[in-house]
Design a protein that fits this description.
The complex is a heterodimer of chains A (293) and B (797).
Chain A (H helix, E strand, L loop, with lengths): L6 E4 L3 H11 L3 E4 L5 H6 L7 E4 L9 E4 L2 E5 L4 H6 L1 H6 L1 H7 L5 H4 L4 H7 L5 H8 L3 E6 L2 E6 H4 E3 L2 E2 L6 E8 L5 E8 L9 E10 L2 E10 L6 E2 L3 H4 L6 H14 L10 H20 L11
Parallel strand pairs in A: 1-3, 2-3
Antiparallel strand pairs in A: 4-5, 5-10, 6-7, 6-10, 8-9, 11-12, 12-13, 13-14
Helix pairs in contact in A: 11-12
Chain B lengths: L2 E3 L24 H5 L15 E7 L5 E7 L1 H4 L4 E6 H4 L28 E2 L5 E7 L2 H8 L3 E6 L25 E9 L2 H6 L3 E9 L2 E2 L7 E7 L4 E6 L4 H12 L6 E4 L15 H13 L3 E4 L2 H7 L2 E2 L2 E9 L5 E11 L12 H9 L8 E9 L14 H19 L3 H8 L8 E2 L5 E2 L4 H12 L1 H13 L3 E11 L19 E7 L5 E5 L8 H13 L6 E4 L17 H28 L6 E4 L2 E4 L5 E4 H10 L13 E6 L9 E11 L6 E11 L6 H20 L29 E8 L15 H17 L9 E2 L3 H7 L4
Parallel strand pairs in B: 1-31, 2-14, 9-32, 12-13, 17-18, 23-24, 30-31
Antiparallel strand pairs in B: 2-6, 3-5, 3-7, 4-6, 8-18, 9-16, 10-15, 11-12, 11-14, 16-17, 19-20, 21-29, 22-23, 22-28, 25-26, 26-27, 29-30
Classes of the chains: A alpha+beta (293), B alpha+beta (797).
Bound molecules: flavin-adenine dinucleotide (FAD).
Flavin-adenine dinucleotide (FAD) binds next to strand 2, helix 2, helix 7, helix 8 and strand 10 of chain A.
């Protein structure tokens, strides 16, 4: 479990990092928190020739509010999301979500940009990006690109990022007044990747959903912004409506089989999450109770 | 912690003033370990030391057609690449059988596979280089040509005529079979009001030590001596076996065991890759280090508990259990492990089922089969979790069938506390157990009736909680007739040497070892108490075959009971010798004197007479002042092995309180209780933490841990992300209580406590889950109880 030999460069600026990536292409790998990259290298699942360490680039750090937009630098660590008053005020969903990402030691090093670029389908933060309608900002040799979260995640560990590009920041609309959120995941142990999870952001008007974004994770090859939400928006949600929404959700899912759960079990858990999530968001516990089949 | 002393016979040497027995004394090694000054095998660096990496088979069963290492040999840092054939020049193969396990068979096993590999992970070549990383680089360039053979993976079909035989010379895949019948089983079932029968399934799992198996072997050709640094539970066993297979005398082998990062039975065996490391040092005439990485730990550390056991119980309407019957099947990998064998676990299952109960009718069959998976052998609480889960699962099913409370059926069938000594239908002998006192105490600790009321109230709200009870017995302090009788040179006795140094401190060398359970601490407590010195004056030396008396080591919950008694007896002699010479110096008699607080004092009023350092000064530096003919002996050695009972059985009972989310299949452990009886408690904190640690490993088995093999014999979760060990976030609070029935086989009275927690934890959890699921009419008798298993049983998926 020792990584194969590799060359190491500490980038001095974003421009310098981009130069290094342009010169080495897919033989190079960006190093952020290292919490996904280093284990993969130690297991020799990947053996990059060059590591471009962007850890010192302060320009990629920090959380700022610009009007209606919350900007989070790619190098923002998980622990910073957990502790930031700006995140708590403007994107409280992230606080709930990050508490489920790994363990304190890993949250002290792991970064938001790393988590999104890594794009593990069972990861919490990519699904939050969908629920929060985030824009992902990347820079490459051709300049800057702004990619909607929905377009960013393309498969298992696959994103719209090119090897020469760097994820530099994300932008979120700040949470509106009266908006509510829900986060829950089913994981075997605290800190484990989820078997199924839901990150949801909603606005409620007169007991109905005025807006509802449901970001499911670990139920497919990438996080899913569920269309089933439309069935629940603008209507009086009854048990029957919710059951219909569950059926609609089911049709959208394409869950994987792994050692923790069969596809059937993932579908089942996704339905439970939807019911419990809707019940919690609307403050109507009766909607979440009872067997779901 | 609270204790009830069931047998209040005073133990004079232990009840002395300022005794440390029964007190929580901080471990003497604590500061060293906390300051990072421990010495683990990985920390050892020797001049000219090289690192070995084993190239391991990717196939479960294959012929080795050829190995081409030419390219790898030319890689930077590579010192040697050695095949099984080449290594065979310096080491002989072995066969893991014991003669007292009649019919047990196995095939010769080599340090590195020759011609054929029999499990995924078996070593096919050793790559020796200047660093681990260089060796791993080179390993990628060793080309091995394999011809895949049919892999025998499913133990249920291993004995079918259509299944290929792994070792042709053995004739079939049956390693061992035991049948045991006691009483009138058929009649008892016929006379029962209800008979319940079901199959219990146990997931294969492993011990997952924090520190992996590690060895530094240093052959000194000039001395013709091999020094082995290894985290082992049995240094003298390693010494004996290394000498045997490397063609050396035992005196040419020294085994040094410094700090060990967890063992749990994983480090009590002889592994092929460790044998290869010793042999490589001899072959290459330089120190060689092997530190298993996590992936190879999962693929080669012994696995355990892969059992399918059919169980049957008969019960009368009044709750009387009439009979137990089991048919157990287990798959142990391609070889029986050396030297303790892989038949012990199944043998224990046969021994232990029904053990806490009075029923005399018992029929058992156990079959142990070979398969192309990693080897299986003894892991903490060998066989107990299987036997306990089967027994206690059956008892609960019987209770459910006749509509009796699980406590009540146990009260009616557990062996009475005044019935001892007595035996079990499987032939076990019990000196003194306390099932009823333990159960009564447990009921009080958990407030059983209040929990039942809470359960009923919550059920109405759709919240499903369950209570599970599991009584158990535990094998500890194996006696003289252990291992040696089967031909394995593993000592059943242990020895301790104590000596007073020239400043009145004590140096104590013991043959038991320390792997974190507190052997060092308890030895110091016993020596300090018996002698009358403070523990900071007692230095304990363990784990060095050159320095300590000969003995078995620390396993089978024997360290405190056997090594502790040897320490007690040795210290009694030293005490007497000190008092003899003190009487001469003080012109008194030994009877009038005592030792307390590091000084010789008057027995009558405790007045100090002479400090031990002054006495030592006289003895060592001014013997001329002693009368003629006086030769003090300030060193004493004693050995001990129990002779009367084959084992000092302990007993106890556990309870689990948990909640099942019946929509998701997730189980939340809310609380766990244990009452156990390990006899004399030397250090309450150490005992409680042994119990808690043991429980956690049992809870791991109940909910999380499983080595998942595919049908081709590939271990598919050999890493810490996919193999789920229990972690603190999921663990409940564990309350521990004690009943104390000392064994009369020793003056110390201590039995073992290391495995009790593991023995019954999974049984308690399984019973609690089934209790919670009663409204659904569902019972599950399979562990680990994963959400998938629970949801499937509930028909949700
Ligand atoms: C034991 C353990 C448990 C974990 N549990 C969870 C969990 O429950 N949920 C979860 O979501 N995660 C979990 N993780 C992963 C953790 O969150 C990682 O921190 C995260 O996935 C990656 O972030 P990083 O900064 O460490 O990225 P790195 O490991 O440094 O990089 C990951 C990948 O992203 C690329 N990359 C990194 N930054 C950029 C960038 N700015 N631009 C372009 N590419 C980039 C790298 O080249 C690499 O391919 C766990 C990790 C461990 C070790």
């Amino acid at each position: 479990m020792k990584a194969a030999a590799f060359a190491y460069a500490r980038a001095t600026s974003v421009a310098n990092a981009l130069d290094l990536l342009a010169a080495h292409g897919d033989r190079a790998k960006v190093l952020s928190g290292g919490q996904s990259l280093m284990p993969a290298m130690n297991l020799r699942l990947i053996s990059p020739e060059l590591i471009v360490d962007i850890g010192e680039l302060t320009e990629l750090r920090g959380i700022t509010v610009r009007g209606d937009v919350l900007v989070i630098g790619a190098l923002t660590r998980h622990v910073e999301l957990l502790k930031s008053p700006d995140i708590a005020a403007h994107a409280p969903l992230l606080v709930d979500a990050v508490a489920h990402v790994a363990h304190p030691a890993i949250r002290n090093r792991g970064t938001l940009g790393g988590s999104l670029a890594h794009a593990d389908p069972a990861s919490e933060l990519p699904a939050c990006m969908l629920a929060l309608d985030a824009t992902i900002i990347v820079r490459g040799p051709g300049g800057e690109r702004r990619i909607a979260a929905e377009e960013f995640f393309t498969g298992i560990y696959e994103t719209a990022l090119a090897p020469q590009e760097l994820l530099v920041a994300i932008e979120l609309p700040v949470a509106k007044k009266g908006s509510v959120h829900f986060f829950h995941e089913f994981a075997r142990r605290h800190g484990d990747y989820a078997i199924a999870g839901l990150a949801a952001q909603a606005s409620i008007d007169g007991g109905r959903f005025a807006g509802l974004r449901l970001g499911f994770f670990a139920v497919g090859d990438r996080p899913l912004l569920a269309n089933a939400a439309t069935r629940l928006t603008g209507v009086e949600v009854s048990a029957a409506v919710l059951t219909e929404a569950c059926a609609a959700l089911d049709a959208e899912l394409d869950p994987q089989e792994d050692q923790q759960a069969s596809p059937e079990m993932r579908r089942h858990l996704a339905r439970v999450l939807l019911k419990r999530g809707v019940a919690a968001l609307l403050g109507r516990p009766e909607l979440g109770a009872g067997a779901t089949t | 912690m609270t204790s009830v002393r069931v047998n209040p016979d005073a133990l004079s040497v232990l009840d002395r003033p300022n005794s440390y027995i029964g007190k929580t004394v901080p471990r003497p090694n604590l500061e060293r370990l906390l300051q990072g000054r421990g010495l683990y095998v990985s920390d050892i660096e020797l001049p000219r030391m090289a690192h070995v990496v084993f190239l391991r088979s990717p196939h479960a069963h294959a012929k080795i057609v050829g190995i081409d290492a030419a390219q790898a040999r030319a890689m930077p840092g590579v010192i040697a690449i050695v095949t099984g054939q080449e290594l065979a020049a310096v080491i002989t193969p072995w066969v893991g059988v014991l003669s007292h396990l009649k019919g047990l068979k196995s095939a010769p096993q080599s340090a590195i596979a020759i011609d054929r590999v029999c499990w995924q992970g078996e070593a096919v070549a050793a790559i020796v280089a200047t660093s681990r990383a260089a060796a791993e680089d080179a390993a990628e360039h060793v080309a091995v040509e394999y011809e895949e053979l049919e892999a025998v993976t499913d133990m249920r079909t291993a004995l079918d005529p259509a299944t290929s035989v792994i070792h042709a010379s053995l004739g079939d895949n049956l390693a061992f079979e035991r049948v045991h019948v006691a009483g009138e089983v058929d009649q008892a079932f016929a006379d029962s009001d209800e008979v319940v029968e079901t199959e219990f399934i146990f997931g294969r799992h492993t011990g997952v030590t924090l520190e992996p198996r590690s060895v530094v072997a240093d052959w000194n050709a000039a001395e013709a001596r091999l020094t082995i640094y290894q985290g082992t539970q049995a240094p003298h066993m390693v010494q004996n076996i290394v000498a045997l297979h490397l063609g050396l005398r035992e005196a040419q082998v020294r085994v040094v065991c410094k700090d060990v990062g967890g063992s749990f039975g994983i480090k009590v065996h002889i592994y092929a890759d460790e044998m290869a490391t010793y042999a490589l040092s001899k072959l290459l005439r330089r120190p060689i280090k092997f530190v298993a990485d996590r992936v190879e730990s999962f693929n080669t550390d012994i696995h355990a508990r892969d059992h399918r056991c059919r169980g049957k119980i008969g019960v009368k309407r009044d709750g009387t259990i009439t009979a137990f019957e089991i048919d157990d099947l287990t798959g142990i990998g391609p070889y029986s492990m050396y030297p303790r064998t892989s038949a012990i676990e199944a043998n224990q299952v046969v021994n232990l089922v029904g053990g806490p109960y009075t029923s005399k009718n018992y029929r058992a069959r156990a079959r142990v089969v070979f398969q192309n998976k990693n080897v299986m052998c003894q892991y903490r609480a060998v066989g107990h979790p299987i036997a306990c889960s089967v027994t206690e699962g059956l008892v609960d099913l019987a209770a459910m069938k006749i509509g009796m409370d699980p406590l009540e059926i146990r009260r009616r069938n557990l062996i009475a506390d005044d019935a001892y000594p007595c035996g079990s239908p499987s032939g076990l002998r019990f000196e003194k157990l306390s099932h009823h006192a333990s159960l009564a105490k447990l009921v009080k600790m958990m407030d059983y009736d209040a929990l039942r009321a809470e359960q009923a109230a919550l059920r109405k709200k759709g919240i499903h909680r369950g209570i599970g009870i599991a009584s158990f017995i535990e094998v500890t302090n194996p006696s003289a007739a252990f291992y040696g009788v089967g031909g394995a040179k593993i000592s059943s006795q242990d020895g301790v040497a104590v000596r007073l140094d020239a400043q009145g401190s004590v140096i104590c060398a013991t043959s038991i070892t320390e792997q974190g359970q507190g052997s060092e601490s308890l030895t110091a407590q016993i020596v300090g108490s018996v002698l009358g010195v403070s523990t900071d004056r007692v230095r304990v030396i363990l784990g060095d075959t050159d320095m300590t008396p000969y003995g078995g080591g620390t396993w089978a919950s024997r360290g405190a009971g056997i090594g502790g008694e040897a320490a007690l007896q040795a210290t009694k002699i030293l005490r007497k010798n000190i008092l003899d010479v003190a009487a001469v110096i003080l012109q008194s008699t030994p009877d009038e004197l005592d030792i307390a607080n590091n000084a010789v004092v008057n027995a009558s009023d405790g007045a100090p007479r002479i400090e031990l350092n002054e006495l030592a000064r006289v003895v060592y530096f001014r013997p001329d002042t002693l009368p003629p003919g006086i030769q003090p002996e300030l060193m004493a050695t004693k050995h001990f092995v129990p002779r009367e009972y084959p084992f000092a059985f302990t007993n106890g009972v556990q309870a689990s309180w948990l909640e099942v989310d019946t929509e998701t299949g997730f189980i939340r452990l809310l609380k766990h209780w244990v009452v156990e009886d390990c006899g004399t408690i030397i250090n309450p904190q150490l005992v409680d933490e042994q119990i808690r640690g043991g429980v956690v490993q049992g809870l791991g088995a109940a909910l999380f841990e499983r080595c998942i093999y595919d049908e081709r014999g590939q271990l598919t979760n050999a890493n810490m992300a996919d193999y789920l060990v229990p972690m603190s976030g999921e663990m409940p609070d564990i309350d521990v209580g004690h009943v104390v029935s000392p064994t009369l086989e020793s003056e110390l009275g201590a039995k073992g406590a290391g495995e009790a927690g593991t023995a019954g934890a999974a049984a308690a959890v399984s019973n609690a889950v089934n209790d919670a699921l009663q409204p659904f009419g569902v019972t599950i008798t399979e562990i680990p109880l994963t959400p998938q298993v629970v949801l499937t049983a509930l028909g949700r998926v």
